[in-house]
Task: structure prediction
Amino acid sequence: MTIADARARLTDKAIRLQYGETLIALADERRDFVVLTADLMHATGMEGFGAAFPDRIINLGIAEQNMAGVAAGLALCGRLPIVCGYAAFTALRAVEQAKLDLAYNGVKAILTGQSGGLSYGVGGPTHQSFEDVAIMRAIAGMIVLVPSDAAEVDACLRAALAHDAAAPIYIRLGRGPEWAVPAAPARFVIGQANRPRDGDDLTIVANGAMVVEAVLAADALRDRGIAARVLNMHTVKPLDTRALIAAARDTPAMIVVEEHSVIGGLGSAVLEALSELPHGPIRRIGIADIMPPIGPTRELRAHLGLSADNIVVQALALSGRA
Amino acid sequence: MAVTFAPFTVAGLADMARQNRIDTAHMFMAAGNGHFGSCYSCADIVTVLYFALMRLDPANPDWPDRDRFLFSKGHAAPTLYSALIRRGFFPEAWIAEYETHVGSRLMTHPSRRYQPGVDASLGALGHGLSIGLGMALAARLDRRDYVTYVLMGDGEINEGSVWEAAMAAAKFGLGNLVGIVDCNGLSVDGRTADVMPMEPLVDKWRSFGWDVQRIDGHDLDALLSALAPRRADALTRPRMIIADTIKGKGVRFMENVRSWHSDAITPAQFAAALAELAGTP
Result:
């Protein structure tokens, strides 16, 4: 089956729709959380939550620095704040507040960045977000999660709310429809990679919307006699180094694919983890050090090589079969 | 249960404010330098809050019903440290280790990691009002009657985030939030009026929806009245106290001198400062 045929069989669901549904579902069992937004309640799929729980959504207007500080004040008084915004603003507009008010003060808060990567591709670089993971990852104590499809967004939010640590959590999310990863494990344990495909010829490490691309690529490679292992590295920090060390030991080469700049994201994290250990060639697929062009999300990803087809091309080259 | 620190008369508060400046000088002598001017302009404000007005329990620094104090002009932390020491939150012996070695519990800026009684780690300017706003919102959500005070510098309020918080505090009608601007007229590079003019401050805050009072920040009676917590009132507007102060207040050779924002001190200057503060020049 071609990649195009396999893709045609996939189902999809909008990430922001899932986000709003999950938080509504959790609102009754977790009475301690409040949602903060900077005039993006509707744009982040939270209008249903706002209607059902008007006392638990605090709209701070278009002022993300203040929103992050308010989150810290609430957390210092025992509340669990969930900041709900776009990745480009949540992660970049209030970096100092994330570092100091949240991480240095040692409080748990959940920062969610929707429209991450190129998921708002037509918005252009003002609304795309391709350096958020690097920036959040550099903050001491910050936990960084990048779930893949709607089902994993649901599992990720539940895991984040249940996570018992006095540290902020950054969750990088998509926006519109993302394809469901076929035959993927449902569990979500912070710090433990999932392994949707097994194999010993190659490892493909991916997260976010690139997991489904990695799986499609692995399935296509299997038809060509290459058994690729896929690691869904949904937790960028703390990184599952055990899974990476096993992959470096078991497979002769690796590809890391992410919807993020090649500077500082998952690829960098993998290289850091393996730099002093024996490993084969590691090839990175990500966004080069450019301001990406504008385009519909799926076309834009393919244009930049963030696709199963490009992963197959790179895998064949690594295997000497290009 | 803790109550405010009862024994203090206005004369007692003046003595404590003097002690605060002496403690601060000892910390800066241990370090070799410090933000004298910034500390001395707000010593009276902090003393009135900690020794007359705030509801605190030094034996239980995390008491959920305590009044909160956010020292947003964090570079003047020794003023807060002295109040916390004299109020019994941590020992006087810590003064000697101010900024002296790796692992010192007292540093330039306040940290809740190391210092009991500090409600939030602060020091990068423009953060305290937002955190205080979050605490005031939490009080409302939890139906608690604590008051949250936020002390800012007049240079600090150049930061845009302060005005983001100013808008939001008015939107939410947080009468349990009290801001204080320590208007000493000088920031690192010179007169605040030259570096970035902010006047008319009363009009600015009022136009953002706050109840505003302007007072002499060294007049203890005025501070006691303006900063008194109002718990029972159904207040619907945040309060802002513009406190006009003198940078370096209490030591004449430091008063209104820009370089004493943060300067090295010689043993002779230290002795002269102590003598003046002790009233034995």
